[in-house]
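Query structure, 485 tokens:
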């Protein structure tokens, strides 16, 4: 199951419940040390130098415990007890440019401003520009709020114990936290806390999608329809189709503008390709529909969309279709008038049908009549406001730690992905992949799992690519969606 994102009081209660059943702090520390060492080995190579900066609390003990499991690495343990005198040790060792620093100076118990000497130590570590693996929390970060206590370690990876803490997801904490990961099971009892936010983990998607029946045929797996592509942006239709094909629905059809039919059709062999015109209609028994990739809002393309009736068709589909509908890119803006048509100010759709919006922060801002900065400042509320405005639909608010959910539901925070997804076509591929999954009747039964799986798999494929090569394209990502992660 996804892991709840918790506050510090909930973390303390979780620990207390663990001690109550007889588990010891020493055993937890030993297990955490093994997980930290495993992550450190992934970040380094044999013969590399790893420096452990250990404070005097449990966080320092966690970091120190990693030393026993760092075989094949040169490990230097630096115990920091008197910051004024320890500063010289840290300056000297940072000048040697170690390959990795394990940060175990302060944990989540820090609750007071740091002295000037501690701040200086943190500044020296950051200035060295050496990769840092933070244990539980970057030293100096307020894990409750996302602020800091005068200075904060800037980690490449934060390996937090058990579950993410609320402050780690705050926008202002992003630079310090880096890539956020959890240790997994280290001997704590099952987390008793509840939350409105849950962190997805790879185990959530083990054996998903479920195995297919031996005697199944393509009619069992739905028909994904992609309405995409316009003059100068035909590649979006191709990428969306490739994403849909990777999801393995029974059939994929692409409907595109006449001006780009030839280049779209020439690049697709397994998908059927047709022209969208005012007289066009969806294929019979369309299982799920994606509208938007490459339908760019400029004067020429927008006039073409209006002339072809595509915008009105989208609005009609939203109001009437019982099939899942995924709306992305410029098509998001075409929905705005729907909310104004109802007394409630919400764009309604048939009860029981599935609607998904997939905006990035800029698109979300246009839909909400605000700025991208405002959306990013409170992504949770922005998602809920979007869902409410559009009839309680599902929303995938893209970006670092993509959010998935609806106005009145628990939200899922995606744990996979990296900044190299910030390439043109990434969202088109995701939209197609999601639609290909939702076209399959069995995968419509649990929308939260299917939507979050699509987002997680898309990010996990990017992580796998980034681990093996430094320069990859969205075409590579389309191929990587078929890999086991």
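Result returned for the query:
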């Amino acid at each position: 199951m996804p892991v709840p994102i918790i506050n510090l009081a909930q973390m303390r209660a979780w620990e207390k419940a663990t001690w109550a059943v007889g588990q010891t702090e020493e055993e937890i520390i030993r297990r955490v040390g093994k997980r930290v060492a495993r992550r450190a080995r992934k970040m380094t190579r044999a013969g590399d130098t790893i420096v452990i900066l250990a404070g005097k609390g449990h966080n320092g003990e966690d970091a120190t415990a990693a030393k026993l499991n760092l075989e094949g690495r040169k490990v230097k343990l630096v115990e920091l007890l008197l910051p004024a005198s320890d500063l010289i040790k840290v300056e000297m060792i940072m000048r040697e440019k170690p390959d990795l620093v394990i940060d175990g100076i302060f944990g989540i118990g820090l609750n007071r401003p740091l002295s000037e000497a501690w701040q200086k130590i943190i500044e020296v570590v950051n200035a060295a520009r050496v990769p840092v693996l933070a244990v539980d929390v970057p030293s100096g970060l307020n894990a409750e709020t996302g602020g800091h206590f005068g200075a904060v370690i800037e980690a490449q990876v934060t390996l937090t114990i058990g579950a993410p803490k609320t402050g780690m997801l705050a926008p202002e904490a992003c630079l310090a936290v880096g890539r956020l990961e959890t240790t997994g099971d280290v001997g704590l009892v099952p987390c008793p806390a509840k939350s409105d936010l849950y962190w997805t983990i790879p185990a959530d998607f083990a054996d998903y999608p479920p195995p297919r029946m031996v005697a199944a045929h393509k009619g069992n797996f739905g028909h994904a329809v992609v309405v995409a592509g316009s003059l100068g942006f035909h590649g979006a239709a191709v990428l969306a189709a490739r994403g849909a094909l990777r999801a393995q629905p029974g059939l994929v059809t692409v409907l595109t503008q006449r001006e780009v039919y030839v280049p779209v059709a020439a690049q697709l062999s397994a998908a059927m390709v047709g022209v969208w015109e005012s007289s066009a209609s969806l294929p019979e028994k369309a299982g799920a529909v994606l509208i938007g990739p490459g339908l760019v809002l400029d004067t020429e393309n927008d006039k073409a969309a209006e002339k072809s009736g595509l915008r009105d068709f989208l609005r009609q589909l939203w109001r009437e279709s019982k099939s899942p509908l995924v709306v992305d890119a410029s098509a998001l803006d075409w929905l705005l008038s729907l909310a104004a048509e109802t007394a409630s100010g919400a764009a309604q759709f048939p009860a029981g049908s599935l609607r998904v919006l997939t905006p990035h922060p800029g698109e979300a801002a246009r839909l909400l009549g605000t700025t991208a900065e405002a959306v990013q400042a409170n992504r949770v509320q922005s998602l809920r406001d979007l869902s409410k405005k559009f009839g309680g639909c599902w929303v995938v608010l893209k970006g670092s730690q993509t959010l998935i959910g609806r106005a009145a539901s628990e939200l899922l925070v995606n744990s996979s992905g990296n900044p190299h997804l910030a390439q043109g076509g990434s969202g088109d591929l995701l939209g197609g992949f999601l639609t290909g999954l939702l076209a399959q009747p069995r995968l419509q039964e649990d929308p939260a799992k299917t939507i979050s799986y699509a987002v997680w798999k898309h990010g996990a494929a990017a992580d796998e690519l980034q681990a093996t090569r430094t320069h990859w394209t969205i075409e590579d990502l389309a191929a990587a969606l078929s890999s086991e992660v």
